[in-house]
Amino acid sequence: MTAAFLRRWFWVWLFGLPLLALAVWGIVDNQRLFFATALNGLTLAALYFLVASGFTLVFGLLRNVNLAHGSLYLLGAYVGWVVGEWLGSWFLAVAAGFLFAAFMGLLLQIGVFRFMHGQDLRQTMATIALSIIAADIALWIWGGEIYQFDPPRWIIGSTALPIVGKFATYRLVLLAMAIVIGLALWWFLARTRVGMMIRAGVDDRAMLSASGIDVQMVFAITFAIGAGLAGFAGVVGGTALSIAPGEDTRYLLASLVVVIVGGMGSVAGAALGAVLVGLAEQFGLAYAPTYGIVFTFVVMTLVLAFRPQGILGRRA
User: In terms of Cα–Cα distance, which of 249, 282, 242, 278 is closest to 261?
Assistant: First the structure.
């Protein structure tokens, strides 16, 4: 056995055994609370993954620092709410949120990022300014009220589960949607021609361009998909929780933490990071509510300390 192998398992046991002991204690102390909290953490992770999957495409693969990603989430949610109110269809609201955010992402790529490739500081400052403008416009149009979607009737109500008891059906549907989208996104990047072009363009833009492929078009499509996923998450997240000013900042921060923990450019890493962050947040709120938010940053700090590229990330 190599030294690297032994070192890896040393850290697994060092952090795994205390977590296992805490899990056993939680189950023995209050079985229903433990499993209900775990399920809440997984459904919250599903929402974080939907937002972060788009962010990992833009930030992790394209290396575009888009700090307006949270604004795309919020604007997609608001536009979806307006369409849902007008047409009375939740599915059309989801489609509207996705398409509007995708269109805004396309404009961002064409009008901003194509002129700032590799200029991280300029991208950061420009997208911070755009996010502030978008938040003010949203506040001007929709005010400071809290909005919420009405999901389809077949997912309203609760489902009886073993041990946990009644649990919101929509949250279970949200978890299933995240799994399906995650698998579809992995297949798109790993198995399709466009996905291969995206990965090739990230590794060597000049070589891809020399082969006759329009790199800007490939990147614009990728950015639109990533932005559209943020708008999609805005509608499904607004259905599970609510839409209100400040949600853009919350989900931008969550996306950053998820991508950092999971690893840049990895869909599987985004899923793993979302699960760790969602579980840490919910278990923190359930067992140590005063310091609940601290648990999330403890996870991020430990990952940065022992694996700076993220759990499933590649070394630069």
Answer: 278
pTM given for the model: 0.87
CA angle, 101 then 106 then 108, to 5°: 95
Residue with tokens 């991020």: 300
Confidence category of residue 202, pLDDT binned at 50, 70, 90? low
Question: What letters, b where the CB count within 10 A reaches 16 and e where it falls short, cover 150-179?
Answer: ebeeebeeeeeeeebeebbebbbbbbebbe
Residue whose entry in the numeric block shows the structure tokens 């932005």: 227
Per-residue pLDDT of 242-251, as tens digits, reads 888 888 888 8
Is residue 143 left, alpha or beta, with left meaning phi > 0 and alpha meaning psi from -120 to 50? left
Specify which residues 161 forms β-bridges with: 165
Which residues, including other chains, have CB under 8 Å from residue 104's CB and lie 6 or more apart? 72, 75, 227, 231
- In whole angstroms, what is the distance from residue 10 CA to residue 178 CA? 33
Domains of the chain: which residue ranges? Answer: 37-246
* β-bridge partners, 243: 147
Nearest by Cα to 64 from 121, 138, 132: 121
3-class secondary structure per residue, the chain? CCHHHHHHHHHHHHHHHHHHHHHHHHHHHCHHHHHHHHHHHHHHHHHHHHHHHHHHHHHHHCCCCCCCHHHHHHHHHHHHHHHHHHHCCHHHHHHHHHHHHHHHHHHHHHHCHHHCCCCHHHHHHHHHHHHHHHHHHHHHHHCCCCECCCCCHHHCCEEEECCCEEEEHHHHHHHHHHHHHHHHHHHHHHHCHHHHHHHHHHHCHHHHHHCCCCHHHHHHHHHHHHHHHHHHHHHHHHHHCCECCCHHHHHHHHHHHHHHHHCCCCHHHHHHHHHHHHHHHHHHHHHCHHHHHHHHHHHHHHHHHHCCCCCCCCCC
Question: Residue 62 and residue 60: Cα distance in Å, rounded?
Answer: 6
19 token code pair: 């977590």
What percentage of the chain exceeds 90 in pLDDT? 27
